[in-house]
Every structure is written in structure tokens, then in C-alpha cells.
Recover the amino acids of this structure.
């Protein structure tokens, strides 16, 4: 196997999103616009809310890509114009293929909004190929207990496999194109080599502690863009990180806010469809908590 080495390392910046919640965002940034097919990586929190302080992302549209929401702490309510609704709790994953378009809302649960509490999680945007940009929206929601887990023989490296395969554990989520999404926890002395096909773009984002990725130290809040090869070597440091990989689409990307298409004309049409109500609206008769 040929170990991939970081070709660059970028540091996430903090900014406000949605109704005013803080995200740590390594992608896109001034240094790195996108890594095909990944459009955006947002680490939501971690933040401790007091009673009445919690904010989220009220009703907003999506078209042309997928959003992957992974809850680490707290609770997130979600609902949309297609009638899907529910609550994501710690360890749960929602893989939403927006396709032709939905109006979507993601908020801390009523309990968190009223009582306060810790909120932490990720949302990642994955581009869709042109042939699927106007597909029917699709949801895959997987509770924490169904996310496959594995560990090295010495127990020093542990993984939750959201997409792809690691240490013999294979994800239960079906992706539109080949994707790797793994949550690794490393103890001091951990040393694990993970096969990642050479045709996939690969990234490692450290969100707790620090780790050695290939031959380079990567600190908390840093994203390593990995070069050529067919495997990734991870070593602790006590750390937690996301290992991401995806097959590049190599198609033109035109984006305007929450719309990601292949041409200016398609963006104009998306805006028209949203403004005219063709993407629907969220009908609220009762909230789920």
C-alpha cells in the first residue's frame, strides 16, 4: 500500500450560520474552495446553551446536493416540505439527498431550547452528479445503535463507520457515489492504516486533540487534504477525527447559497422555483420532540 501524505493543511475558521449558531468551518475557506465532491464541512459547536439561548437553522431550501448531519451531543429537530420530521440524538446520522429540492429546518430540540444543554455535531455537503441533481429527495436516517463500529486489536483506535468500510465494519448507508465517512477515536500509541481507494479525494479533519496523519501532525480544528496513494495512516495523540473520501465528479459547479448546480441557468431556475413555492413549504400541525 502507498500511504497518502497531506498535500496541505488548513485551519478552520469560525462564523455564524442559520439563526446565529457558531460553526467551525474548514471548507470552504480562503485557502480551500472545495475538494470534489465535498462542498462544505461545518462543525456545529461544541457549545453549552443556557435556557432560551439555543438557535439553529430555520426554514431554508436545498437543491442539487446532499446534506449529511451527524449528531455528537444534544438533540436536533428536523422537518421539511416533503413531510419528513424527527429528532437526531447523539450518534445519529441523517443523510438527506435534496435532489430537485426541499425546504428544510434544523433546530435544537424543544428541550434544549427551553432548558439549555450541550450541542455538538457536523453537517457536510456532498455534491450530486448532474444526472441526479433533479432526482426525487431521499432520506436515510440511522440511529446511533445501528452505526457499525470496530476497533484495532489493541483497542487504541476505534471507528464508527457512517459510510464506506473500515476494520471489517461496513456502513449501512447507501450513497449515490462512492463515499467514505468515518469517525475515528485514537488513544496515545494508536497506529492504524486504513485502505482508501486511490481514485477518491481524501480528507482528515481533527476535531479533538491532535493526531499524526501520514507523516504530519494535525491539530484540533485543522483539515488535512491528502495526496495520492491508496491508504491513510493515523496515529495518536489522543484525538478524534473524521476521515472523509469521495469520488470526484469533475463537473462544473455553480452555487448560489443553498443551490448547487452545473450552470447559471439552472441556478436562476432554482431561485424561481423556490420563490414561486414549487419547492413546497413545511406544514406544521404539531412538533416532534
Amino acid at each position: 500500500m502507498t500511504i497518502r501524505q497531506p498535500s496541505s493543511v488548513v485551519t478552520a475558521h469560525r462564523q455564524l450560520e442559520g439563526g446565529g449558531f457558531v460553526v467551525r468551518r474548514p471548507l470552504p475557506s480562503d485557502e480551500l474552495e472545495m475538494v470534489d465532491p465535498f462542498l462544505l464541512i461545518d462543525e456545529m459547536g461544541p457549545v453549552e446553551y443556557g435556557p432560551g439561548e439555543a438557535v439553529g437553522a430555520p426554514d431554508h431550501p436545498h437543491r442539487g446536493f446532499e446534506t449529511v448531519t451527524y449528531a455528537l451531543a444534544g438533540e436536533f429537530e428536523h422537518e421539511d416540505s416533503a413531510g419528513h420530521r424527527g429528532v437526531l440524538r447523539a450518534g445519529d446520522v441523517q443523510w438527506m439527498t435534496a435532489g430537485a429540492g426541499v425546504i428544510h429546518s434544523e433546530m435544537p430540540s424543544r428541550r434544549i431550547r427551553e432548558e439549555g444543554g450541550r450541542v455538538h455535531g457536523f453537517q457536510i455537503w456532498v455534491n450530486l452528479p448532474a444526472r441526479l441533481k433533479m432526482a426525487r429527495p431521499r432520506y436515510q436516517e440511522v440511529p446511533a445503535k445501528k452505526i457499525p463500529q470496530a476497533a484495532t486489536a489493541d483497542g487504541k483506535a476505534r471507528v464508527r463507520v457512517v459510510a464506506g468500510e473500515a476494520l471489517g465494519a461496513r456502513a449501512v448507508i447507501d450513497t449515490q457515489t462512492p463515499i467514505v465517512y468515518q469517525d475515528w477515536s485514537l488513544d496515545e500509541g494508536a497506529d492504524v492504516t486504513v485502505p482508501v481507494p486511490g481514485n477518491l479525494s481524501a480528507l482528515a479533519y481533527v476535531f479533538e486533540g491532535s493526531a499524526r496523519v501520514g507523516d504530519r501532525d494535525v491539530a484540533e480544528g485543522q483539515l488535512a487534504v491528502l495526496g495520492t496513494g491508496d491508504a491513510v495512516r493515523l496515529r495518536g495523540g489522543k484525538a478524534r477525527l473524521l476521515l472523509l473520501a469521495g469520488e470526484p465528479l469533475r463537473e462544473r459547479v455553480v452555487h448560489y447559497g443553498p443551490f448547487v448546480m452545473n450552470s447559471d441557468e439552472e441556478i436562476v431556475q432554482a431561485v424561481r422555483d423556490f420563490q414561486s413555492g414549487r419547492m413546497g413549504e413545511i406544514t406544521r400541525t404539531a412538533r416532534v420532540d
Observations:
- The domain at 6-246 is CATH 2.60.120.10 (Jelly Rolls).
